[in-house]
TrEMBL record:
Similarity section: Belongs to the class-I pyridine nucleotide-disulfide oxidoreductase family.
Cofactor note: Binds 1 FAD per subunit.
InterPro entries: Class-I_Pyr_Nuc-Dis_Oxidored, FAD/NAD-bd_sf, FAD/NAD-binding_dom, FAD/NAD-linked_Rdtase_dimer_sf, Lipoamide_DH, Pyr_nuc-diS_OxRdtase, Pyr_nucl-diS_OxRdtase_dimer
Name of this chain's protein: Dihydrolipoyl dehydrogenase
Pyridine nucleotide-disulphide oxidoreductase dimerisation domain segment(s): 354-463
Record's catalysed reaction(s): N(6)-[(R)-dihydrolipoyl]-L-lysyl-[protein] + NAD(+) = N(6)-[(R)-lipoyl]-L-lysyl-[protein] + NADH + H(+)
Keyword Oxidoreductase: yes
Entry GO MF terms: dihydrolipoyl dehydrogenase (NADH) activity
Native species: Roseateles paludis
High-level lineage: Bacteria, Pseudomonadati, Pseudomonadota, Betaproteobacteria, Burkholderiales
Record bears the keyword Flavoprotein: yes
Length: 473
């Protein structure tokens, strides 16, 4: 067993961890990053849940399934005729795996480029000395005065429906279904449930989503949620709200869910596979926080202050393992901020301007306050909305679903929230993030020249609508 000294040790190589390690190295620190993810061959696969079984692979499958749906249903409108259309699921999944590996290899390259020492394995606290902490990984002991914990989160299991990743699936198993199921059940209508349900629905599965909450997409703006529910229903997703799961029974080749519907009536649903997506829990398994007295809260999350400091001097935590939204980009921003704080700089994360995105079709994205939040706060506001139906580029694309909605302060006109459902919402939301970060007004966006024809013109028109002066609707 050997002992190695570093300035900073990062435990976890997901978006928060690997970015923190690289930024700390850029700032002149001697940095190590520990990550235990393995690829199919047992080799290192840094990137965490996001790269391996989350953001990246799901987007690869969403893209493949969207191409398939366009070919089967949309190409004819463009004068393109196809026959005998079929999907090779194995090849689709293999492409997804290739995309994942490219990202894994990219992170390993970035470590090498930035002189970050990488250790493959699970990192755990082994004790602390005066001004330093010992972290064990395999046969190695790493010693550092500064430790950044970025161990991420794990899928929450439904009691009585534990994951076997064959019939009852987490996000991991949902990405590896070998063939299109005839019937697919999804418990939970959050981001993962909607995205994975959309993938397999496009490929021909009959998808039923069971949601315990009485409202659909409760975190989104009400008008966006209502539009999304209408569109998803038209697409063929059967979304049932206000259900109460009674039991989940696994057979040899199927799963049966007994539940009460919103009216209290007993129902039963038998599916070929069941995806359980009821949220995620902070991952501290094997970290051994008790070895150094690291404080966790009642959810198992690491307790941190506004600057991501834990109760231990020199120990920080970022991303899904701490408070706040479980978003990869939030973890990245915290990772950069912590690295800069360690270096004596003033790292900053503005939680009010973190965008949210759901990569369904149509895409859904928002930043800032929803209309229902502003009403609850009693804040006076103005709203402006513009439909993609009236946007020339959307018409040319053949995708006019949805709208852009602006919410601005009634007195100052400061942008308080922007909500988009429609084509490329994930890209369009960035303009709103920049605007809000600089405290822009709706008038500022309304006065900026946007390229024609472009989807972004819908953003300008929605800003104009705040003052009731849209030009194309």
């Amino acid at each position: 067993m050997s002992t190695k000294q570093f300035d900073v040790v990062v435990i976890g190589g997901g978006p928060g961890g690997y970015i923190a390690a690289i930024r700390a190295a850029q700032l002149g620190k001697n940095v190590a990053c520990i990550d235990e993810w393995k690829n199919a061959a047992g080799g290192p696969a840094p990137g965490g849940t996001c790269t391996n079984v989350g953001c990246i692979p799901s987007k690869a499958l969403l893209q493949s399934s969207e191409h398939f749906e366009h070919a089967g249903h949309g190409f004819a409108d463009h004068g393109i005729s196809l026959s005998n259309l079929k999907m090779d699921v194995a090849k689709m999944v293999a492409r997804k795996d290739t995309v994942v590996k490219q990202n894994n290899d990219g992170i390993l390259f970035l470590f090498k480029k930035n002189k970050v020492s990488f250790f493959h394995g699970r990192g755990s606290f082994a004790g602390g000395k005066e001004g330093a902490y010992e972290i064990k990984v395999g046969d190695e002991t790493l010693v550092a005065a500064q430790v950044i914990i970025a161990t991420g989160s794990s899928a929450r299991q439904l009691p009585g429906a534990e994951f076997d990743e064959e019939l009852i699936l987490s996000n991991d198993g949902a990405l590896r279904i070998p063939s299109v199921p005839k019937k697919l059940g999804v418990i939970g209508s959050g981001v993962i449930g909607l995205e994975m349900g959309s993938v397999w629905r496009r490929l021909g599965a009959e998808v039923t989503i069971l949601e315990a909450m009485p409202a659909f997409l409760g975190a989104a703006d009400d008008s966006v949620a209502k539009e999304a529910a209408k569109v998803f229903k038209k697409q063929g997703l059967d979304i049932q709200l206000g259900v109460k799961i009674a039991s989940v029974t696994k057979g040899k080749k199927d799963v049966t869910i007994a539940y009460a519907d919103a009216k209290g009536a007993e129902q039963s649903l038998t599916v070929d596979r069941l995806i359980v997506s009821i949220g995620r829990v902070p991952n501290t398994a094997g970290l051994h926080p008790e070895a150094v007295g690291l404080k966790l809260d009642e959810r198992g999350a690491i307790v941190v202050d506004d600057d991501c400091r834990t109760n231990l001097p020199g120990v920080w935590a970022v991303g899904d393992v701490v408070r706040g939204p479980m978003l990869a980009h939030k973890a990245e921003e915290e990772g950069v901020a912590v690295a800069e704080r360690i270096a004596g700089q003033h790292g900053h994360v503005n939680f009010n301007t973190i965008p949210w995105v759901i990569y369904t079709s149509p895409e859904i994205a928002w930043v800032g306050k929803t209309e229902q939040q502003l009403k609850a706060e009693g804040r006076a506001y103005k709203a402006g909305q513009f439909p993609f139906l009236a946007n020339g580029r959307a018409r040319a694309l053949g995708d006019t679903t949805g709208f852009v909605k602006f919410l601005a302060d009634a007195t100052t006109d400061e942008i308080l929230g922007v909500h988009i459902i429609g084509p490329m919402a994930s890209e369009l939301i960035s303009e709103a993030v920049v605007a809000m970060e600089f405290k822009a007004s709706a008038e500022d966006i309304a006065r900026i020249c946007h390229a024609h024809p472009s989807l972004s013109e819908a953003t300008k028109e929605a800003a104009l609508a705040v003052d009731k002066r849209t030009l194309n609707f």
